[in-house]
Amino acid sequence: MNRLAKVLAVVTATITIVVPFTAAVAQDAELIFRKSTVFKLLSPDHKLATYAIDDPIVEGVACHFTVAETGGWSGYFGLAEDLSDASLACRQIGPISFKGKFEQGDEVFRKRRSLFFKKARIVRGCDAKRNVLVYLIYTDKLIEGSPKNSTSTVPIMPWGDSPAAKCSEFLEE
Q1: What is d(CA 10, CA 137) in angstroms, rounded to the nearest whole number?
Q2: What pTM did the predictor assign?
Q3: Is the pLDDT of residue 132 over 50?
Q4: Alpha-carbon gap, residue 14 to 113, rounded angstroms
């Protein structure tokens, strides 16, 4: 078996293992809508896609984020590396309750942004002094990170007759 055949065999095996795994992670986000940004005549357009997620540990918080999705044939087949640009907005949508303890910077969501090396991540923290949840979206790469990021905060407020929870009480130390 020559060198090219070996490389192709490894890539094929990796795709077989990696793609279903990353697709399962990405299914946690609900697609709200996509908007074309660059027209492509014979292949899919470049788009901005807006997704919604519910915090898996903090009930009563939802986040919406928008990411660029590369079009063309490489984007269609999942071979393109998407841009690192992202925006994030998180809000209290009901009474906040915590399902368990969490650490500063715990991952809330992860989505593949290229075939192998880049992921978009949303992480959560607690500003205990102000009783505010802090969410950060960023991309990382295996070789080098990305400074492009967006932050959103959710002040924990009373909801109806429910008193405001304290995020500091659920921080792992």
Answers
A1: 31
A2: 0.72
A3: yes
A4: 16
* DSSP letter assigned to residue 24: H
86: which strand partners? 67
Biggest distance spanned by C-alpha atoms of the chain = 70
Domain boundaries of the chain, sorted by first residue: 3-170
- Report d(CA 21, CA 136) in Å as an integer: 23
CB distance 71 to 47 below 8 Å: yes
CA atoms within 13 Å, Cβ hemisphere of 23: 7
Nearest alpha carbon to residue 103 among 122, 137, 126, 121: 126
Average pLDDT taken over every residue of the chain: 77
Tokens representing 130 are 């102000």
Distance CA(164)–CA(60), nearest Å, equals 11
* Tokens 């405001």 sit on residue: 164
